[in-house]
Amino acid sequence: MEYRLVKSDRTMFSKYFATYYKNNWFRPSWDDLTKVLSNSDDGYWVFAGDDKAAGVYLPDLSIGLVFGISPYSITTELIHFLKRHAFTTWNLTKELHAYNVLDEQESAYRDAGFVWVGSRQCMLRPTEQLETSININYVDRRPAIEDMSRIAEVFSKAYANGPDEREEGVYADDLVRYFDHVPEKLLKASSVICDRTTEEVAGVCLISIWEGLPLVYSIAVLQQHRGKGLAIAMLEKALTVLELEYPVLRLFVTRGNQAELLYRKKGFLSGGEYHHYKYTIE
């Protein structure tokens, strides 16, 4: 089949994206879905003959996402076409990344020579009033700007050698942005857990807002303090405090993070994974 790529109109591309791309992130409304790409000029149509077969988002020399337009689906042949376009148009010499790949698209990418890099999912749970408690050896208090360096240290140590590990300095930069924008009411739902005796920060749960609904911005417990119910206590506190104003709490989890089992145990529902793939020139 012969394919060709045509630049799309922002408004029309946003409507098609909202209709045909799976809402794994639990975006709460049609407006939220159409706003995701409404300011981007990186949307294109893939035509098969005279038919509009797919939409593709091509930001920053990558395949940002692709969706089939009924009755068409994403095939290996179509991914090969996008790969050839990327390498010839962008003069890539080493690799091409593809993000936000849906479960049903994985085989097409693999058959086109891409390899899996990682996966991430959004999970959702109703807020509610719970009987909350914390281990008597710890104390829970509200996060403050003065805690930033200690919180960053917790994230750095807790995420080390895991799927969410990041470069030094990133945690501190993220915390500056967090405290610059977080509303006071969400700090009340957040936690800094300290060892009652040593005053060491043992765990942290930060709640933010995303698309009008609360989101677990980051949650972590140091290795030596795990197994004492601290993560569950922080989540239960957040669910209880947020229930007065918000119907649900969302969070993101990377495949390979053992916390996913804890989230499922606490009733969080997965919307499905988005996958990251990469094609490398041998």
UniProtKB/TrEMBL annotation:
Q: Source organism's superkingdom? A: Bacteria
Signal sequence, renumbered to the chain: none
Name the UniProt record assigns to this protein: N-acetyltransferase domain-containing protein
Which CDD domains does its entry note? Answer: NAT_SF
Q: Which InterPro entries match?
A: Acyl_CoA_acyltransferase, GNAT_dom
In this chain the N-acetyltransferase domain maps to 136-282
Please provide, alphabetically and separated by semicolons, the GO molecular function terms listed in this UniProt record.
acyltransferase activity, transferring groups other than amino-acyl groups
